[in-house]
Design a protein that fits this description.
Blueprint: H1 2-18, E1 21-30, H2 46-64, E2 85-90, H3 93-106, H4 111-114, E3 116-118, E4 124-126, H5 128-131, E5 138-140, H6 162-170, H7 175-183, H8 185-190, H9 192-195, H10 209-222, H11 236-254, H12 264-282, E6 289-294, H13 296-305, E7 324-331, E8 346-353, E9 363-364, E10 374-376, H14 377-384, H15 392-399, H16 435-441
Parallel strand pairs: 1-6, 2-5, 2-6
Antiparallel strand pairs: 1-7, 3-4, 7-8, 8-9, 8-10
Helix pairs in contact: 2-3, 10-11, 12-13
Length: 486
């Protein structure tokens, strides 16, 4: 009898699943493969272009296409409707170009039939490049150095947040850091023959764990083994240890549970996520898709704040090129032109793909220590507002800033102003983010590599980028067993 009941229930599961409607999404995306930070200017490679395009194509197949597996309610499937999209990237050629490449996959050229226009005189004009679609990418200007943030090895200062800078620097005085620095000296010295054209004996230490790893990682993707000095030293175990040490270094600089301000990147990102999803609900899916391109440090900061390391230690590692995390607004209530679900009928699902979603599973994970991967919108808002920083006064107060845009801001705010309310309406507190401060608190997307205190742009020598091809067995995804965190 139970077996028969199970069969009946199982047969209904597809129907139950089919009732779910995606009302909107927010996607935070890392750039694609790029050249090393050790030599400026850093630029997106052909491989990186391909990675982000493939990711865009994946999300098209999931959300946008007329045959999409999880279609977004009301989304234009062929010709883009720019009012439905909000796309942002910092003033940086790697991140801006990654966003553009992604959008080409999300809304590809539509051809001469759809990509043409008839003029008043009866003549027809076809869009260039087979109906290539133009989608604007809004630029987020950094508060300090601004353009080309991916060229910099030390970017916490670009967040403009004084207390976050101090907090990150505190790591270099911690016992944990000193233990790692001392215990890994011989390990780093053992690989000096590989990198001595760029690093010296003094800089070849755990203090520069990320730039060392980045230099070797990029070289192994793009250079033939014969052009890498002493390449025999780069065993699978050695490269795995280099990545593991870089992971540890960067996570500790991006997040600390006892010093939440260190995760300013995650806090500002959380507010932006709330604002976009809230606008989707308030506008009844008039603006359904928010996309932002940023750096891995923002992922790490958000992971820590959202308690994801408790789900998997992989959330403490540097995310791969073209990684993305997605927040889906979903409902099981009916949705039509005359009927839209209320806030208490809407839920949020968090998904993450380590690397381009086209090649790596987009997997749902529970947030905030919850047991379910789908949580009510009201719960999501409540939990996010515990650490989201979404207004100028709060940001200035939390960061301890009193100059620039903060000179005229109130410094009395002691808690984060909500970016959204549980009812799905715009918050009345805080006054929102002005365009003047957007460059400051929006600079979290330029917080790319939280490193030591020195920028490692050395004399041009040693390894060079000579090929666009991934070496067989030594690429980013094949460095060592377990090296790629998922």
């Amino acid at each position: 009898m139970l077996a028969k009941q199970f069969i009946v229930v199982s047969s209904l599961l597809p129907l139950i699943s089919a009732q779910e409607t995606v009302l909107g999404v927010y996607i935070f995306h890392r750039h694609g493969d790029r050249t090393t930070k050790s030599y400026s200017p850093t630029s997106l490679t052909d491989l990186g272009y391909q990675q982000v395009w493939q990711s865009g194509d994946f999300y098209r197949a999931r959300y946008v296409d007329s045959t999409a597996t999880s279609p977004i309610h009301g989304i234009a499937s062929n010709i883009v409707k720019n009012s439905q999209l909000s796309v942002e990237a910092p003033v940086d050629n790697v991140l801006q170009n990654s966003a553009a490449g992604f959008l080409q996959g999300l809304y590809p050229p539509v051809g001469a039939t759809l990509g043409s226009q008839t003029l008043a005189n009866g003549s027809s004009v076809e869009a260039p490049m087979n109906g290539f679609q133009l989608i604007p990418v809004n630029a987020v200007q950094s508060a300090s150095t601004g353009a080309n943030s991916e060229n910099s090895a030390w970017l916490q200062g670009q967040s403009g947040c004084n207390n976050a800078i101090i907090s990150s620097n505190n790591y270099f005085f911690s016992s944990e850091y000193m233990q790692k620095l001392n215990s890994t000296k011989s390990f780093y010295q053992s690989i000096l023959p590989v990198i001595n054209g760029t690093f010296t004996s003094a800089t070849d230490t755990f203090k520069n764990a990320y730039t060392i790893y980045d230099f070797i990682h990029v070289s192994m993707i793009h250079n033939s083994s014969s052009s890498i000095p002493s390449d025999s030293l780069l065993t699978n175990e050695t490269v795995y240890q280099l990545q593991t040490l870089a992971d540890n270094h960067e996570f500790n600089l991006a997040y600390n549970s006892s010093e939440p301000i260190r995760a300013i990147a995650g806090s500002t990102l959380a507010a932006q996520i709330l604002q976009q999803l809230n606008s989707t609900i308030v506008g009844k899916s008039a603006s359904q898709v928010g996309i932002q391109f940023g750096a891995y440090a923002s992922f790490l900061s958000f992971f820590g704040l959202a308690q994801l390391p408790a789900v998997s230690e992989n959330f403490t590692g540097i995310v791969d090129y073209a990684s993305s995390m997605t927040f889906e607004l979903v409902t099981n209530s009916s949705v039509s032109n005359s009927s839209y679900p209320t806030a208490d009928e809407i839920s949020v699902r968090f998904l993450f793909s380590n690397g381009s979603a086209a090649a790596n599973p987009l997997t749902a994970y529970p947030l905030f220590g919850q047991s379910s991967t789908v949580i009510p919108w009201t719960t999501f808002v409540s939990e996010m507002n515990k650490f989201a920083i979404g207004d100028q006064a709060t940001w200035c107060s939390q960061c301890g800033n009193s100059t620039g845009v903060c000179a005229t801001s109130t410094s009395t705010s002691t808690s984060s102003s909500p970016s959204a309310t549980a009812s799905g309406s715009s918050s009345s507190g805080g006054g929102g983010i002005s365009k003047a401060v957007a460059g400051v608190i929006g600079a979290m997307v330029t917080l790319a590599v939280i490193l030591g205190l020195e920028a490692l742009i050395m004399l041009i020598a040693g390894l060079r980028l000579v090929s666009k091809k991934r070496l067989g067995g030594t690429g980013a995804a094949a460095v060592a067993p377990g090296a790629v965190k998922e």
